[in-house]
Amino acid sequence: MLNIISKLYIFVLRLFGINIGKKVRIWPLAFFSKGQNKGIKGIIEIGNRCEISQGVVLKSYGGKIKINENTFLGEYVIFYGHGGIEVGSNTLIAMHTCIVSSNHSVPNQSKLIRDQNDLILPVKIGDDVWIGAGVKILGGVTIGNGCVIGAGSVVTKNLPPYSIAMGIPAKVVSYRNE
What we know:
8-stranded mixed beta sheet, mainly beta, UDP N-Acetylglucosamine Acyltransferase, domain 1, 178 residues, globular, 6-stranded parallel beta sheet
């Protein structure tokens, strides 16, 4: 039954311009919004053999969200892709992770924060990355291939390939194959 619902949902998403590869599974209650910002329509691309769990929210807000092949997004993962988010192949993102690729500019105290310019801060996540449950990834970050990020961490800076990082803010504690 899930396969039928998933295929129907994928069909409808494609009608709305979401680019979805082959052998993708999307669970019920996942939400996709390309949106727009300053007249620029957003883009969402999902590669072959990806799995998008229930409650996932992908909002591009005029930016581009690209999820490469064989990637898994756990329950209630949220992407705000205004500044662009790219996730590599064979990556695992556990439940309740949030990735934000923009921020508010706040220098002018006489102007409402919501009326000030957004800062565009792209996020790039490499191939074969494992992101634990409840991780927060802030804009402007690159996570190298093969990284592991511990549950509950907040990633505020780039992480080198094959590093194992955890904490608030996330810090490298080891490397894979050590």
